[in-house]
Specification:
Number of strands: 6
Largest sheet: 4 strands, antiparallel
Length: 152
């Protein structure tokens, strides 16, 4: 009977490659659970609390990520204050939000941007004069160099 093991596993060692050295990231974070997104939220700036930013983010739906939710992940933790026990680093704390909320927020701001661009276009077209029509072309082109023309 023929041996059905793959040749690669029989002749080569199965080793994982060593990752090259890179400076450590100060904002490394555990992977977000399925259906959530992680993001660093500013809690303090230059030693002063940024309560306005934190409260606006919490109202948007972000919730702080506690270190005890990730027992196998070693992360810096906020030691004191209101957010004690939350994963934090240098005036930032790790927060999470459901992916659905992120998608809804992206769609909302995308709609707002389209509305603003439409308003700008309409305002521009009001200023148009029949003898000098305004062309509204939002396409861009990139060109590299070009031939020098001979002047004779």
């Amino acid at each position: 009977m023929a041996d059905r093991t793959p040749r690669a596993s029989a002749t080569r060692e199965n080793e994982t490659r060593r990752k090259p050295w890179a400076p450590p990231s100060h904002l490394a974070a555990p992977d977000a659970p399925a259906g959530y997104v992680h993001r660093w939220i500013r809690v303090a700036m230059r030693g002063e609390e940024d309560k306005m930013n934190v409260h606006s983010k919490l109202r948007e739906g972000w919730e702080p990520v506690r270190a005890d939710e990730y027992p196998n992940y070693e992360a810096p933790v906020i030691d004191e204050g209101k957010y004690q026990g939350v994963i934090g680093q240098g005036g930032l704390m790790l927060c999470r939000i459901p992916v659905e909320t992120v998608d809804e927020r992206t769609a909302y701001y995308g709609g707002r941007t389209r509305e603003q661009m439409t308003a700008v276009d309409q305002d521009l077209m009001k200023e148009q004069h029949p003898s000098m029509p305004i062309q509204n072309n939002r396409q861009s082109r990139v060109s590299f160099g070009g031939r020098a023309r001979d002047s004779e």
